[in-house]
Amino acid sequence: MEKTGVRSAKAGGLLAAALLLVTFVATSAVAQAMQPAPATEVAAVLPAQDSLVAQGEALFDKTCASCHQSGGAGVAGTYPPLLGNPDVADSAYVEDVIRNGRKGELVVDGVTYNSTMSSKGGDLTDSEITAIVEYVVSLSSQTLDQVTVDTTPPPKGDPARGKQLFRGDVKLENGGPGCASCHLAGPVGNLGGYSLGPDLTHVSGRLGGVEGLSGWLVNPPSKTMTPVFSRHPLTTREIADLAAYLDGAPYQQRRTYFTDMLFLGGAVGALILFAGMAIAWRGMRQTYVEKLRSRS
Amino acid sequence: MKVRAQMSMLFHLDKCIGCHTCSVACKNLWTDRKGAEYMWWNNVETRPGTGYPTGWEDQEHYKGGWRRDEKGRIKLKLHSKAGGLGKLFYNPSLPELDDYYDPFTFKYGDLFDAPQGDQQPTAIPISKITGEPMKIESGPNWDDDLGGSDTYAKNDVSMEGVDAAVRAQMEELERVVFNYLPRICNHCLNPACVGACPSGAIYKRGEDGVVLVNEDKCRGWRMCVAACPYKKVYYNWSTGKSEKCILCFPRMETGQAPACAHSCVGRIRYMGVLLYDADKISDMVSKPDDELLDAHLGMILDPHDPDVVKAAAASGIDDGWIDAARNSPVYKFVKEWGMALPLHSEYRTGAMMFYIPPMSPVVSTIESNLVKLDLPEERKDFELLDQLDKARLPIKYLANLFSIGDEEPIRRILRTMLSIRTYKRRQSLDGTELDAETIEMLAQVGLSVNDAEDIYKLTTLPTIEDRFVFPPYHREMSIEEINDPLAHKGETGLGYIQAAHRGP
C-alpha cells in the first residue's frame, strides 16, 4: 500500500514537473513575442501643446478615434457621432462615460445606436481624462466643416492581400501576430481557423463596413488586442487590406468542395465500417447461454 | 519447506440431496443486497448440466485458469499483460448478466391488493434489478433435477470423451440420472483471479488461505471475473467492485462453521485445516497434465510428521492449528483414505476444496420390458465392484470433473465406498459374520476393518464437532503483528468508532 503510494506520488510529481515545463516554455515564448518597444513611452509621444483642448485632441485620436473616428464624426448606425452632438456638451456626462463606459440604446440625430463602449478609466490618468473631456465638449458645438479632419482618402484595400495577412501568409510589418492565430473569418483554410477570438465572418456588419473597420484597426480597442497592437500597430496599408478582406468575407461560401468531400467521405467510411462490423462480428455479442438456446 | 495452513471444505457428494439450503443460507447472509442480486457465492448444480453461470467449464469461451506452455511455464489463459491492457474496456471472455441469469422475484403484493374481479389475482414475475415485469428465461439452476435437458445437460463440457452410446442413453428421459454439485470459491493455492487483477486488490490470507478482495483497492476492471475458471468472483453493478465467497471468515474466527456448511441438512460438508508446502506451489501448477493431480494432492503435508511440525512452528503456525490439522476430517478423507479429489485440477489454480465423488445405481439390463439385474443373487454384493462401468453416472464423466480425465482414481474411490457399503450391509442387514471374503475385499482397496469402521462413522454418524474442526484463530495475536494494542492505551482515539466526549 505504502509502496504504491510513494510510486504514484512520484509519478504525480513527474507529471506536474512536465506540465510546469511546458507552461513555462509556452508563456516565455508569448512573452518574448510581446516584449519589444518599451522605449516609446506614451507620454513622450504627446506633442507639447499649450492648450488643454489640443492635448485632448491628440489623446482622442489615440484612444477614441478608432470608433468615433478622427474629429468625432462617428459611423452612422454603429458609433454615435460626437461632433455637433448636444448631449456631449455636459462635461460630467462625458467624463462618466469615459470612466465607466456605456451600454444600451442611444438616439443621436434620429439614428438609433446600440453598441457597447468599454470603460477607459483604467487606461487613462485623471489629467488625460480632463483633457479628452475638454476636447469632446468642444466638439458638441461644432460641425463637420469647423474641425480639422484628415480628408485624405484612405488607400484602396486589396482583399487578396488582406486574406494573406489574415492567414499569416504575409507577416505583419510591425511584428504583430496574424489574425488567424485567434480568429476565424470565412473560408480561412480547408478545416477552418481558430476560435480563440470572436468569429470575424460578419464583423463588417457589426463594426460599420470598411470605414468602421479601418477606424477600429488603427488601435484595436479590445482588452486582449490593445496591449498587443499598441506595441505592434498595423500600417495604413495593412489596415486597408484587412478591412477590404473582412468586408468581403461574409459573402464567400464557408463550405468548399474539400469540406463537402470530407463530410461525404466520413459518412461513407462510417457506413462501410459498420457494415463490415455487422458481417465480420456477427454473433460476437451473443452470450454463451443465447448460443446454447439457439442451438437446441 | 515453507508450511502454511489452509481452511479447507470437503463435499461428500454421495450425501448431497440438492436442497439448496446452503445457497439460501449464504444468500441471506451475504448477497441479499443491491447489486448482488444475481450472485450465488454458494450454488448447487444439477450435473450433467452447464451449471451457473451457464457453461462455466467451457474455458475455450471463458478463458479461465492457467495454461501450461511448451516450456512448461504457466500463463493466464485470459491474456498476457499487454493483451490485458487492450481488453481493459472490452473483454469478450467476461460473462454477461444473461450468462448468469436475470434475477427475478414476484409481485406478491398484487395477491393482497388486487381489486375484486372475475379472475384470481396473480403474482407476475418482476426483475429484481429494474422492478419491471419480465419473462423468466433462466435461473441459477434452471434445469434443476433434469438429467437430460436438451439445452443444458447435452452441452455439458465434462461429458467430453464419454462413449457416444452412453451419452445417447443418458439423454433419454427414462434413463434420467443426475447428481448434485455444490460449489463455493475454491480458495486456490495459485488463484487466477489474483494473477489477473490489475489493481492488486485480491490476496490470499496468510493464516487460513482465504482468498479475499480488498474492496478499497478494487477498481472494477473485472479481470478476476473472467480469469477465475470456476467463475466464483462476481461483479457488483451497484458498488462497481468485485465480490466473492469469503469462506465466512468472521464465523470461522469465532469458531462457527461457514453458513453453507452449518446449514447443510445432508451434513455433506466437512471442514478442517490442511497444512501445505508453499515452496512447492509453482512446481505443482506447472506439472504436465498426467502428473498434475498427484502433485496437487502431494502438496498436503502430514501433520503427524515431526519434520512438518517443526517447519510449521518455524513458519509461525500456532500449536492449536497443528492440533486442528491432525484432527481435520478433510485431511483424513483426502490423504489418509484417499477418497476425495479437487474439482477440475487441470485449471492449475490448485483448488483447495475437495469432493468425494457420488455413487450411482448400476444400469440394469432390460429384457422383455422387465427390469432385471443380471447377477446371481448370492454374489451380488461382490460382483458390483466389477461392474463400475455400468454405473449410471459414467466413470469418464466423473473423471472429467475430478481427476483430469483419469478414470483410475475415480474407480478406486468408488470401489472403496462400495466395499465399505458391502461390509456394513453384510454386518448389519444380513447379520453375517466377518468372513475372509469381506476382509479380502477391503484389503483390495487398501483398507483394514478399523479403517472401514472409521470411514463409516465419519460418513454416516459424525457429530458437528467431528465435521467441523476449527483451530483457535487468536485474532488478538494476529493484530499484534501489525498493531501494538498497548500503543494507544490511555488515549481517546480518533473518535471513529466511539465519539470522544471532551467536556464542554
Task: Provide keyphrases for this structure.
heterodimer, A: 296 residues, mainly alpha, Cytochrome Bc1 Complex, Chain D, domain 2, two-stranded antiparallel ribbon, elongated, disordered N terminus, B: 504 residues, alpha+beta, five-stranded mixed beta sheet, two-stranded antiparallel sheet, 33% helix, 13% strand, globular
Task: Give your account of this protein's structure.
The complex is a heterodimer of chains A (296) and B (504). By secondary structure, chain A is an all-alpha fold. Among the domains of chain A are: 45-146, Cytochrome c-like domain (Cytochrome Bc1 Complex, Chain D, domain 2); 159-251, Orthogonal Bundle (Cytochrome Bc1 Complex, Chain D, domain 2). Helices cover 51% and strands 2% of the residues of chain A. Chain A is built from 13 helices and two strands, in the order αααααββαααααααα. Chain A has helices at residues 2-33, 42-45, 52-63, 65-68, 91-100, 126-140, 159-167, 203-207, 209-218, 225-229, 236-248, 257-280, 288-295, and strands at 106-108, 111-113. In chain A, strands 1-2 form a two-stranded antiparallel sheet. In chain A, helix 3 (52-63) packs across helix 6 (126-140), helix 7 crosses helix 11 and helix 9 (209-218) crosses helix 11. Chain B is an alpha+beta fold. Chain B has helices at residues 21-31, 59-62, 81-86, 97-100, 109-113, 164-171, 192-196, 223-227, 249-253, 259-263, 281-285, 289-298, 306-314, 319-326, 329-336, 380-383, 395-402, 407-430, 436-444, 449-460, 464-467, 475-482; strands at 3-12, 43-47, 66-68, 74-76, 104-106, 125-127, 179-183, 202-204, 211-213, 233-236, 241-244, 269-277, 300-301, 341-342, 354-356, 365-367, 370-372. In chain B, the strands form seven sheets. In chain B, strands 13-12-1-15-14 form a five-stranded mixed beta sheet, sandwiched between helices. In chain B, strand 3 (66-68) and strand 4 form a beta hairpin. In chain B, helix 17 (395-402) crosses helix 18 and helix 18 (407-430) crosses helix 20. The interface between A and B is medium-sized, with 10 and 19 residues.
